[in-house]
Amino acid sequence: MKSLKFRKATVADVFPLSGLIQRTIRVSNARDYDRKSIDMLCAIFAPEPLTERIENENILLCFEGANLVGTVGLKGVYLRSLFVDPAFQGQGLGKVLTARIEEEARQRAIPEMMLHSSLTAREFYAALGYEFVELQSYPEGPFVLMRKPLNVHR
Ligand SMILES: CC(C)(COP(=O)(O)OP(=O)(O)OC[C@H]1O[C@@H](n2cnc3c(N)ncnc32)[C@H](O)[C@@H]1OP(=O)(O)O)[C@@H](O)C(=O)NCCC(=O)NCCS
């Protein structure tokens, strides 16, 4: 990978961000969820609801040159909406984005990171030290609640 740049999302990023997330859901999550679930998940990340998320969450973007290639968010104690462009997966970017948001959580003195993993990402999070809590059922399909204690800075 060429050099990566990271910055916070603003509402001006909503269209490329929605495009990245919806593309990733259709390519990567379609392995584990049926068509109805995929359409519901994509609707959550349509530009209008995503604008509200950008305003209310801490969303980090990763660019390679001018291209948006990854994103992750932090809301309260929850790591949310981690997506890596399918063409850039398997090169360590998901791990880097997770580490950055965990560091941000530590600086906010959050003792434990929580997340709802897709079935697709479960093994990825397990490799990063997240423990299974429980399987949860949502209208969009099943998700896995996972947790990881953080060593909080004093
Ligand atoms: C999950 C996702 C973010 C991972 O990003 P990525 O950039 O491909 O992951 P990385 O290359 O950083 O992988 C980090 C480690 O996890 C492992 N890993 C990644 N995906 C894995 C999988 N599906 N199963 C097992 N291990 C996996 C890698 O082998 C790597 O291990 P290593 O450090 O020992 O080499 C990405 O695949 C994605 O966007 N998936 C679709 C969207 C999604 O489901 N997001 C989660 C929403 S909750």
Q: Give the beta-strand count.
A: 7
Which percent range fits the helix content? Answer: 25-40%
* Distance, first to last CA: 35 Å
Present as ligands are: coenzyme A
Measured by DSSP, the beta-strand proportion falls in 25-35%
Q: What's the total helix number?
A: 5
CATH homologous superfamily (4th level) name of one domain: Gcn5-related N-acetyltransferase (GNAT)
Q: What general form does the structure show?
A: globular
Major sheet summary line? 4 strands, antiparallel
Order of helix and strand elements from N to C terminus: EHHHEEEHEHEE
- State the CATH topology of one domain: Aminopeptidase
Strand order of the largest sheet: 1-2-3-4
Decide which structural class fits the backbone.
alpha+beta
Radius of gyration: 15 Å
Mean pLDDT: 96
Which architecture name of one domain does CATH use? 3-Layer(aba) Sandwich
**What is the CATH top level name of one domain?**
Alpha Beta
The residue ranges in which pLDDT falls below 50 over 5 or more consecutive positions are none
Pfam family, one: Acetyltransf_10
Enzyme class: transferase
Organism: Yoonia rhodophyticola
InterPro entries: Acyl_CoA_acyltransferase, Bact_Acetyltransf, GNAT_dom
